[in-house]
């Protein structure tokens, strides 16, 4: 189940990417599965096709899915997903959040705990 | 015979019209979206009951009137048929007028109560729903086209042997009482019209399949089941309509090509029989779809997986008068009707006009040019 919050400050396409990635983490979607076409998913959600298109391209650039002509958006295999370069980008994206936590006096263990809780929550949902 | 058929039709239309507020989605009351937890609000139920009572009274008066007219032997058969055909429209217009009144009342109530004020509004989609979609393949609708094409070829071969006058209308006893001059158009119009219908049904099925499976976050289980049933049963109903319509047109065309092929009574019985089958099909469709996610379902929410209060996004602003859907963002071409069972067009999408209005215009032009 994908769920987008209309009132959130996070743009819809970005929420959609996260929701699709969460579905993969939970095992609702697995390697080789094809995502619905842009038109179909936009119709189900009642959002503009550009929103879905943008999300699919974001997922493609992150190496999560592969857009295969005539077949659609296919979920890539786990091992080939993350490159050293992607890890570098991810840690760059983590950095400001970690800095904010540290500057507020949070300890290393507390930050670890937050991340563990998030992981548990994602896997339990649905 | 005519009286019985008309009476059945009137009864059918009345019952359907009276029951509409109870078999539509319970979160859309007279075209106004409300949260699940307010579906049993006393004022909401009061409006629905009031609507049903008034519609029932009007229908009862009309049916009684129809019986009295039937006793009046001075009236004549044509006049009786005319009155009988008008009554369903009177009931429909009564229902529509009441709809607009209660639509206004509901809009006011929703504003007063500030529904949706604190509820988190989300858009949801189920990636597995597509695999459970049981709509018929669109190509099914092209199978009857073989019959139409065969009839066109047959008619072209027989063209020279046909009389110079082609019957266009038949009296109650099955003898033709109106004729037109023989031309390619007048000889071929029936199978061409049925071919246009078949392509229109193909297009409707194709684009309905591509349209969104709309799920309500407030009650995922019921709303999904209703959407899947609506898709399945309307596509079957459309196919049934296609087959019966093709047979009816083929029957009329064969009657045109080979005079005296069918007896007069058969000419009368076939259209009546087909009407009866269509009515029965519509009834099954209404029961199958209308019993889910409506007031008939009983318990409001049987799915407790939604722990926090969430509902689907209130899309009332895209529904003009609660009846006409105009949403440029939604690529869906057909969406579930808000007052009735079935589909309505997304008027913001030009493909919809092309799929439905162009074939209808073509059919009207063909039927009036004979």
Automatic annotation (TrEMBL), chain A:
Q: What are the alphabetically sorted keywords of the record?
A: DNA-binding, Transcription, Transcription regulation
InterPro entries assigned: Tscrpt_reg_HTH_GntR, WH-like_DNA-bd_sf, WH_DNA-bd_sf
* Family annotation (CDD domains): WHTH_GntR
Q: Which residues form the HTH gntR-type domain?
A: 10-78
Is-annotated flag, keyword Transcription regulation?
Answer: yes
* Any one GO molecular-function label of the UniProt entry: DNA-binding transcription factor activity
Q: Which SMART domains match?
A: HTH_GNTR
Q: What is the lineage of its organism?
A: Bacteria, Bacillati, Bacillota, Bacilli, Bacillales
Q: What is this protein called?
A: GntR family transcriptional regulator
From TrEMBL, chain B:
> What InterPro entries does this protein's entry cite?
DUF1648, DUF5808
For the DUF5808 domain, which residue ranges apply?
A: 328-353
UniProt record, GO biological process: response to toxic substance
Any keyword Acyltransferase? Answer: no
A single Pfam family, by name? DUF1648
Question: Does this UniProt record's set of keywords contain Transmembrane?
Answer: yes
Record's superkingdom? Answer: Bacteria
Residues spanning the membrane: 6-24, 50-69, 81-102, 140-159, 184-207, 233-254, 266-287, 347-368
Q: Where is the DUF1648 domain?
A: 148-194
Give the keywords, sorted: Membrane, Transmembrane, Transmembrane helix
Q: What name does this protein carry?
A: Membrane protein
